[in-house]
Amino acid sequence: MRLGIFYLELMRKLIFMLVLLCVLVSLKNQNAELKDGSQTLAWVQPSFHSSNTLLSPFDFPEPIRMDRSLEEDQRRGSLEYDYYRDSCPEAEGIVRRVVWRQQEVQPEIAPALLRLLFHDCFIQGCDASVLLDAVNGSESEKDVPPNETLKGFDVIDIIKSEIEDACPGVVSCADILVLAAREAVVLVGGPFYPLLTGRRDSTISFPELANYEIPNPQDDLPAILSSFGSRGFNEQETVTLLGAHSAGMIHCRFFKHRLYNFQNTDQPDPSIDPEFLNLMRSICRNSDPPSASPSIYVAPAQSSSSSERSSDGIKMDYEGPGSAFGTLYYQGLLRNRGILYADQQLIAGEETKTWVMAYAYSSNSLMFRKYFAMAMMKLSNLSVLDAPMGQIRLHCAKVV
After folding, report:
1. In sequence order, what are the residues at sequence separation of 6 or more whose Cβ sits closer than 8 angstroms to the Cβ of residue 368?
2. Could you give the CA distance from residue 383 to residue 76 in angstroms, rounded to a whole number?
3. Quick one: which of 40, 49, 43, 38 has its CA closest to 62?
4. Which listed site, 142, 235, 348, 395, has its alpha carbon 20 to 30 Å from 163?
């Protein structure tokens, strides 16, 4: 009987490894096709020698390509590439300059902007509703617990102000947010990707939806897949988008429940690597109690104050920033070193674990970068408003 169980388990593992091997071979073949350039469109990643030297994305050799069929799927309504080429040709350059300039004074602004985009697009689409202030005593999306730690609003306001000076009443806040998030991805070592523009801004905020539909870092794998799946993302795309957790800092209160009393057991989360558990405990010894309503997306640390020290948290790229965007995050999950429970859950399913392993151990980082770029393009086009719906706000926090 035991021998039979042993062989069944052995066969299951062999089948799993065979599936993984097939995925890696397939991805290698796709990368080979990228070099051929057949049936593809190419875009390249920008690089910046300094914040004062802003070069065109087409000045650099690293390609991020996708099939033409996907490009056609991305086209919708009045959105198009370089939508503001005549009405505000400076728009994308202004976004780039401001984000890179602000990075010098706010080192954590890149993950903050990326998180802001996720929280906007996950609630009724990428319509800048998360930027609206409360009006006449009513709540806005900003006010609900999952969004209380959102940052980056000031940077969006700076960008909007400079664009309004150049092109009054032309560029939407929704477009500014997706463009700023793209610059944030590049700042943390991720790929540049093309974006459709021409979005319009929502005239209302959705606080109730934001309160209940923003993914929670305590979610298990079925809940994570359900949340992303309801917005059109498959398992691979879900694993890929969570690679954004390669950057930023997560405060102890968002994961401290895993360290001592996981699921009311009076024990730590058994999925945490023991050595990493000790590190997390040493860092979070004097931190605040666990948060009741956190968000799955990283909450960037802020400057020190009497109530909150930026040291009371762990950098998501704790093993090394920059060049290994994505890779170290996925390798950490395979070592049971995921900081958030929701992240660690990605190895609880066979298909999601297959993609974690593929991204962690691929010999060519271009594979992850390609799929991350495509997933971010899809996210940025989620349920957008285009003309004649919505409006162009003159100030991103207020409707016209």
Report:
1. 240, 243, 325, 326, 327, 359, 362
2. 10
3. 43
4. 142
248 contacts: CB under 8 Å, gap ≥ 6: 108, 110, 111, 112, 114, 115, 298, 299, 300, 315, 316
> pLDDT per residue over 287-321, tens digit each?
655 544 455 555 444 433 333 334 578 887 655 55
Q: How far apart are CA 189 and CA 273, in angstroms?
A: 27
According to DSSP, the residues that pair with 313 across neighbouring strands are: 251
Of 239, 248, 245, nearest in space to 375 by CA:
239
Which 3 state secondary structure label does DSSP give 95?
helix
Span of 11-25, 102-116, 220-234, 364-378 with lowest mean pLDDT: 11-25
Phi and psi dihedrals of 361, rounded to 5? -120, 10
AA letter at 149: T
Distance, in Å, from the CA atom of 267 to the CA atom of 262, rounded to the nearest integer, reads 6
Cis peptide before 388 (omega within 30 of 0): yes
DSSP string, 227-244: HHHTTT--HHHHHHHGGG
Q: How far apart are CA 246 and CA 47, in angstroms?
A: 19
pLDDT tens profile 237-293: 999 999 999 888 888 988 999 999 999 999 999 999 999 999 999 999 876 555 444
Residue 244 tokens, joined:
């954004």
The Cα 212–Cα 300 span in angstroms is 21
Measured CA to CA, the distance from residue 208 to residue 193 in angstroms comes to 32
Measured between alpha carbons, how far is 77 from 85 in angstroms, rounded to an integer?
17
**Alpha helices per DSSP H over the chain:** 2-36, 68-74, 91-105, 109-121, 153-166, 173-187, 207-213, 221-229, 235-241, 257-260, 274-283, 327-334, 341-344, 350-361, 366-380
Handedness of CA 204, 207, 213, 214 (dihedral sign): positive
Q: How far apart are CA 114 and CA 166, in angstroms?
A: 25
Residues 137-145, mean pLDDT to the nearest whole number: 92
Length, in residues, of the chain? 400
And the tokens for 388? 């004649």
| SS3 track for 101-158 | HHHHHCCCHHHHHHHHHHHHHCCCCCCCHHHCCCCCCCCCHHHCHHHCCCCCHHHHHH
pLDDT at 63 over 50: no
171, 193 Cβ separation under 8 angstroms: no
